[in-house]
Amino acid sequence: MFTKKTNLLALAMLLIVALAAITASSWLPFSPAAISPEQRLTGPSAAHWFGTDDFGRDIFSRTIVAARVSLSVGVIVAVLSTVIGTVIGLISGYFRKVDFVLMRIIDGFLAFPALILALALVAALGGSITNIIIALTLAFFPVMARVVRSATLQVKNQSYIEAAQTTGSSHAVIIAKYVLPNILSPVIVQSTFIFAKAILAEAALSFLGVGVNPSTPTWGNMLQEAQIYVTIAPWYSIFPGLAIVITVLALNLLGDGLRDSFNPHQAKRKRKTKLA
Amino acid sequence: MLNYTIRRLLSVIPVMLVVSVIVFMIVHLTPGNPAFLILGEDSSPEAIADLERELGLDQALYVQFFNWFSQVITGDLGTSVYSSQSVTSLIAENFGPTFSLMALSTVILLAIAIPVAILIVALRKTVLDPIFTSVSLFGVSVPEFWLATLLVLGFGVALPIFPVAGYVPFAEGADAWLHHILLPSFVLAIVEVGIIARMLRDSMLDSVNQDYIKTARAKGVKEREVLMRHVFVNALIPTTTVLGATVAGLLGGTVIIETLFTIPGIGQLLVDSIHRRDYPVVQGIVLFIAGIYVFVNLLVDLLYTFLDPRIRYD
């Protein structure tokens, strides 16, 4: 699974970003909160690699520290959406009696563009990190539920499931022992994409001014503050944006790579048609 | 097919019902008293009680939902707390710019995605294909507000070709309209281009080796004509379905793009109303956007059966 070059590259990129964020306080050249008015909005230099912001704070340090919130929100949203979506998808795919009702509810959630639903929910709940995680989870779990349901429907028709049913295994045992392990690959791929989308959505919410408290450095908050200075201090906008692009790109690369690794037949067929 | 059409039309009812419940619940998720939040901290208890009665907040939840829902069905989305205007008329006033933005983005999107996909398939044995795959992946990884910022820096500030903000209605001159809306539409479109182009490419590559294509080649049809008349036309069918999802992406994107370029559309109205805690407007716009999305997907599904009569939904 991790032998493919792109998978390794993507994983390495993510690990570097995560490690930099976790260990930041021990090696950062400046404190991300240190204000120095005389250094206001200076461009990239040997001392301040990414330049300074409107309070003279070091943008490099802030970009690294901001990764903590952005990555944490992404991970938590991905995990919660995966767990909730998987449970609903399994129930819906396995027990056909509740399928119709559950899927109509999921259809209702899917009728909102994810960002709009998240925006409305944050507007109602208020912009704390917890509420943003709740809003984004509600926006992204329906996709996972759909993916899990269709995978479950495919697995359910396999003869080993029938065999387990005839031997008298309970539904819970069948789901846990036979269905779940066989649908894990689409779940893992999808959760990678949700992770990526959650980072983008969190940044978009902060940019619209309804996200994480502006005093907390997140990539979205930094870009929002940078917006007014974009013509006089373009570096302020460029570097936090690049941090988002690199992280999200790595996640999308990983998702794509994992999908190919899990579906070797399909990937091979793709390569063949490419050469035809 | 008639049977399918009727069933597909009916399937909208439960979806819109669930959508209504979600939209209704948004206001009731608010911690604390909505009337207090709308009026602010200095408000008197009498004023709060009055607004509560006006908004129907003093009744049981299911009664409130029923009252609200029976109004919504007749097209009455309530009244703005901020401007005392009806939400329906506010949406109607602000929909022009949003519609312009979405229509032009869709045109730009297709005008770029279709030629790119054809080119990639025609040159599939070259290095162009892996390059395209990487670029399209890059496209879905860029936050659109950041891309917009960079483009504004490039084409609004460094090379002042386009205005960096504002909107001119089409009625006041097509030139000025296009001049103001071209850059925002481009940003909105470019984020989705990779998805559509890649979908087109994938489905074209799937059909490149099909028997009917081989037959066409064996008959001596030129490769160019094979691509355009057979491969491309058949790839359009699966792509129409993604177009439905793309509309959702565009609708979400308009909120950001309108805020960034100060275009007075429903996206900006939504963000402004959130900051003003004008919940009836927030509810109305969210419901309206979900309605458009459900409607577009309905159209796409019906178009799909029309384009490909082999598809039967049993």
TrEMBL record, chain A:
It comes from the Bacteria. The keyword Signal applies. One of its GO terms (biological process) is transmembrane transport. The chain crosses the membrane at residues 71-95, 102-123, 129-148, 187-212, 232-254. Keywords: Cell membrane, Membrane, Signal, Transmembrane, Transmembrane helix, Transport. Residues 71-255 form the ABC transmembrane type-1 domain. Residues 1-20 form the signal peptide. Belongs to the binding-protein-dependent transport system permease family. This is ABC transporter permease. It comes from Planococcus maitriensis.
TrEMBL record, chain B:
It is found in: Cell membrane. The keyword Cytoplasm does not apply. It is a multi-pass membrane protein. It comes from the Bacteria. InterPro entries: BPD_transp_1_N (IPR045621), MetI-like (IPR000515), MetI-like_sf (IPR035906). Keywords: Cell membrane, Membrane, Transmembrane, Transmembrane helix, Transport. Belongs to the binding-protein-dependent transport system permease family. This is ABC transporter permease.
